[in-house]
Design goal:
By secondary structure, this protein is an alpha+beta fold. The chain folds into three domains: 100 residues, Roll (Pdz3 Domain), CATH 2.30.42; 184 residues, Neurotransmitter-gated ion-channel ligand-binding domain (Acetylcholine Binding Protein, Chain: A); 125 residues, Neurotransmitter-gated ion-channel transmembrane domain (Methane Monooxygenase Hydroxylase, Chain G, domain 1, Up-down Bundle). The chain has nine helices and 18 strands. Strands 2, 3, 4, 5, 6 and 7 form a six-stranded antiparallel β-sheet that branches. A six-stranded mixed β-sheet has the order 11-12-13-10-9-15. Strands 14, 16, 17 and 18 form a four-stranded antiparallel β-sheet that branches. α6 packs parallel to α8, α7 packs antiparallel against α8 and α8 packs antiparallel against α9. The N and C termini lie far apart (99 Å). 23% of the residues are buried.
């Protein structure tokens, strides 16, 4: 009896193992055939719309105010709702639908109310709803029928900045971005399922060639640029994932690297205390909504600043959307400030030192005119040399910078020392003075340094007063 039972158990195990070896390969093979179809079959589908039945308005996920209303943030153009003249600028909020109160008593109620709202919109063909304008505290009631339309595909974009460089003498900034795009395309999915008869598949394409082959057959929402002077290039396609498992994943996920170059809004008149206004734009020509997210925290900013060397990113990042024609454009704006310690210690302080040396002529005996002229002329030549040190960092602009003003004042005071030395010697010989120092020299020992200090202080006030 025991031997018979053991044989039964052994037979069951054999059947179980056989099922693993025969069934599992068939599942894998079916998914593999789906991926081969996407890669090698000659089909093309540029669809970027899907049929949808909706009421035409889109509520916000949450609203940070005392009453916790669910606010209407967008209305579909051409929908029956757009004819009801709801003013989005007045912050319309949904207070009730079909007599059900949707005002939140506390923040914890939001998920329940949002689910309740979703169920009402899904289960009803006709609704009566009341809105409350937060802006002017008015209430209005409306009636609305559900309607059918072709909805353009929505896209979720996650954008990471890997590297930034300021180029072309501060005129442009170039950035290396890692971008992940996620979107659904039901029409393409239906076509795949109809041919492969496989409703559960996931395909990974991780080579440039295979990704391009698939993307050439289906519509994809790779962003473009619209700003004047903005240039972009797809540097590398890393991974394309196509799947149809469940609602937890998008059907298409594309990871790629993009290089973008944009023109800076400069304030070169403040050089070397200038700041660049940099704006990157991403125009998603999908027609639908773009849910965009820039991943930039303090650690990311510190990492980018290490590569910028001469520049430093300010932490006030701005993210916003605006329409470019009928498309959504995402903008990422920030300021880059020049690190000016190099210019302070390597140029400005040495220039101040040279000017002070030029004032030493007022301590040289009047009879030593050659020594006086040697000191003042060498000081002038040294200042001219410093003018070339920073000139290569700037484009040839038609205005005077802070640094130019600083150097010109240095020229003025160093040249003034030369003229006064010559005049002092002439006055000394003309009046046949017998003392070692002219009265003018004695006065200039104090007037020249004080006047120069006032001039430099004025520049500092101009720079930091703006």
């Amino acid at each position: 009896m025991k031997i018979f039972e053991l044989r039964q158990i052994f037979n069951i195990l054999n059947i179980f193992l056989a099922s693993i070896f025969f069934i599992y390969p068939n599942i894998s093979l079916s998914s593999e055939r789906t991926c081969e179809y996407l890669l090698y079959e000659n089909f093309f589908d540029d669809t970027y719309t899907e049929p949808v039945v909706n009421f035409g308005f889109f509520p916000e996920d949450a609203e940070d105010n005392d009453d916790y209303y669910i606010e209407i943030i967008d209305i579909l153009n051409g929908s029956p709702l757009s004819e009801l003249e709801i003013d989005l600028d007045k912050d319309p909020t949904i207070t009730s639908i079909n007599g059900i109160n949707l005002v939140l008593n506390n923040e914890e109620e939001f998920s329940d109310k949002a689910k309740q709202l979703e169920n009402i919109l899904n289960d009803n063909e006709f609704i009566e709803f009341e809105i409350y304008y937060l802006d002017d505290e008015q209430k209005k009631s409306f009636e609305l029928n559900k309607f059918s339309y072709e909805k353009e595909i929505d896209v979720t974009a996650t954008i990471n900045i890997n590297e930034l460089k300021v180029i072309n003498k501060s005129r442009e900034t170039t950035g290396k971005f890692f971008i992940q795009l996620e979107w659904d395309n039901p029409e393409v999915t239906k076509k795949i399922e109809a041919i492969t008869t496989n409703n559960e598949y996931v395909c990974y394409f991780d080579t440039q060639d295979s990704i391009e082959k698939v993307l050439n057959k289906v519509w994809s929402p790779i962003p473009e640029s619209d700003e004047l002077g903005s240039k972009y290039e797809i540097a590398k396609l890393n991974l394309l994932t196509v799947r149809n498992f469940n609602d937890d994943y998008y059907q298409f996920t594309l990871d790629f690297e993009m290089d973008k170059t944009v023109r800076n809004k400069t304030s070169l008149g403040q050089f070397p205390f200038d700041t660049l206004e940099t704006k990157f734009d991403f125009v998603f020509k999908n027609g639908g909504s773009v849910y965009n997210h820039y991943e930039t925290d303090e650690e990311d900013i510190e990492s980018l600043n290490k590569n910028l060397l001469e520049w430093e990113i300010q932490k006030d990042f701005k993210e916003y959307f605006k329409k470019v024609g009928s498309y959504d454009a995402s903008y990422f704006e920030f300021d880059i400030k020049r690190k000016n310690l190099y210019y302070i210690f390597k140029i400005m302080l040495p220039v101040i030192f040279i000017v002070l040396i030029s004032f030493s002529v007022f301590w040289i005996n009047n009879q030593e005119i050659e020594g006086k002229l040697n000191v003042s002329i060498v000081s002038l030549l040294a200042l001219i040399a410093y003018n070339f040190v920073y000139g290569s960092d700037l484009p040839k602009i038609g205005s005077i910078t802070v640094m130019d003003t600083f150097i010109l004042i240095a020229y003025l005071f160093a040249g003034l020392s030369t003229f006064i030395s010559v005049y002092s010697y002439f006055d000394y010989r003309r009046d046949k003075l017998k003392s070692d120092f002219n009265t003018l020299d004695l006065k200039m020992r104090y007037i020249a340094p004080i006047g120069y200090a006032i001039a430099v202080s004025s520049i500092c006030l101009i720079v930091y007063g703006k």
